Amino acid sequence: MQLRLKNHPYRYECENLCRLFFPYSPVQVVDALSPGPEEPWAEALVDGRLYTARVSDGERVVEKSEEHPGLEEYAMTNLLYSAFTKLTGQSPAWGMLTGIHPVKLLRQYVDALGEEGGAEKFRTHCHVTAPRTRLAMRTLQAQRPTTSALEENDWSLYISIPFCPTRCAYCSFISQDVKHAKKLMEPYFALLLEELRKTAQVTKALGLRLISVYVGGGTPTTFSTEQLSQLCSAVHELFDLSHCPEFTVEAGRPDTITREKLLALKAGGVTRISINPQTLSDQVLQNIGRLHTAQDVLDAFALAQEIGFDDINCDLIVGLPGDSLEGFEKTLEGVLSLGASNVTVHSLALKRAARIEAEGGVTLHQKQQETAAMMDYSIRRLSEEGYLPYYLYRQTRMAGNLENTGWAKPGSICRYNIYTMDECCSVVACGAGGVTKLKDPYSDRLERIFNFKYPTEYISRHGEILQRKDGVTQLYEQFRQRLH
Are 423 and 448 a contacting pair, CB within 8 Å? Predict the structure, then answer.
């Protein structure tokens, strides 16, 4: 898709709107339009006080114009959105929102206008449908006890384990399959422990209070039983966990779960785990490159419950190749029958680095009505079963332009998920691909420090990783200087 811009700085916002309505057509910003036959295109132009949006699907053209006294982002994006909706006949569930954190935006509106006024602005100003406005408000309300309890020196620890038994067809993460990355795992683990030691020194010197630990991936249970025990021991030895009621490990793939590993996690003080089926259809599992069966999921779940894990999350994905509404309903009912305390429902997000994109396995992803019906079914059934939506985020090129929502039984909310998605609490990340997000407790300022993305870089340039941890000290000193 070609996009022409003129006399305004809103390129990023206009590109995202193009992707919203034409997710399978890469956006190319051009100085002059020269589209091929049946190729969609768009123009977003400012000429003095006149704003103009022209959009085309390659056949029909829609044009909208309005006058505004000066440059204004919303004036341009709202006009372009309006033109796209008229051209396509589509009214996306989340309206013109293309950002990751819609609940964070709703919170800003509610803080300024109250619940009723904030929700109304969210719905009308952003063109969000009434059902999705209600979902966002329910999520905001469920988060309040967690966010309101935060203190200025609270922080969370994220530990990245970027290895998996196989690479799923939809995956675009940095995770590497064990077959090709096995030789990296030992040196990676040793250096990860070094980074944890450095992180402990820095956060202790700053007087920060650890309130949540989350070990994610990848699949952390690709590590051996001994390594998992060592990792848990290191967390307990290096950090003060006296104010930390939550220690989560993504066990994730059932083909990596053993009794010995679960016992090691339990003995290591882990309070929450994930066992993520994505689907309970053996055929769909095969389609996405999983080596386990649906029965393996059921067996792993029963084993975890037997060992004493009460808080278990299950991830499901809407829009997987070969799935159907009936198949998704069976999967969700199967997970509910297991008694999972948390269920996270994702919409398949197609990334260009994913194998499923390269192989064209996007049939269901393109069926917006069917994927929307799957998501609506999950909202209805989880609500009926007493689950609360407590965190929510969005990605580009999601099936049906929908959302990812974490649901929990009352008392089983994973605080870390709120902290990282709402960006209301500092999260210090260790490991490849980790992103440290430091929240100034005295303002809306948020600063990021990035670790190297791939395990090979993480290993070869580890000295730089440790140096970057000093940036945590520098930024917190800046936060505190501004207070005084």
Answer: no
Q: Report residue 295 CA to chain centroid gap.
A: 27
CB 428 within 8 A of CB 157: yes
Q: Is the pLDDT of residue 405 over 80?
A: yes
Entry pTM: 0.92
Q: Which positions ≥6 away from 405 have C-beta within 8 Å?
A: 135, 139, 344, 345, 378, 379, 389, 391, 392
Query: For residues 208 and 200, what is the distance between their CA atoms, to the nearest angstrom?
Result: 10
153 and 84, same structural domain? no
CB 347 within 8 A of CB 402: yes
Structure tokens given for 150: 């935060």
Domain check: are 122 and 201 in the same one? Answer: no
- Note whether 301 and 279 are same-domain residues: yes
Tens of pLDDT, residue by residue over 21-39, are 998 889 999 999 999 989 9
Based on the fold, state whether residues 286 and 161 are members of the same structural domain: yes
Please give the Cα distance from 473 to 408 (Å, whole number).
Answer: 35
Residue 202 lies in a domain: yes
Contact (CB, 8 A) for 55 and 2: no
Q: H or E stretch including 51?
A: strand 50-56
Q: What is the CATH number of the domain that holds 39?
A: 3.30.160
Beta bridge partners of 159: 215, 430
Residue 50 near residue 65 (C-beta atoms within 8 A) = yes
Contacts 24+ apart (CB under 8 A), 405-412: 405/135, 405/139, 405/344, 405/345, 405/378, 405/379, 406/313, 406/342, 406/343, 406/344, 407/342, 407/343, 407/344, 407/345, 407/382, 408/142, 408/341, 408/342, 409/341, 409/342, 410/386, 412/311, 412/341, 412/342
Query: What residue ranges in 307-445 does DSSP mark as E strands?
Result: 311-318, 342-347, 388-393, 404-408, 426-430, 435-439
Give 243's contacts (C-beta < 8 A, 6+ positions apart).
209, 210, 211
Element (H, E) at 370: helix 368-384
Give the helix, strand, coil percentages of the chain, each rounded to 5. 45, 20, 30
If one counts every other C-beta atom within 10 angstroms of the C-beta of residue 138, the result is 18
Range of the domain at 330: 146-471
By the 10 Å C-beta count (0-12 exposed, 13-18 middle, 19+ buried), 330 is classed as: middle
Same domain, 285 and 224: yes
The string of pLDDT tens digits covering residues 100-140 is 899 999 999 999 999 999 999 999 999 999 999 999 999 99
388 occurs within a structural domain: yes
Q: What's at 172, amino acid-wise?
A: S
Which DSSP symbol is given to 451? P
Do 139 and 182 fall within a single domain?
no
Domain check: are 406 and 396 in the same one? yes
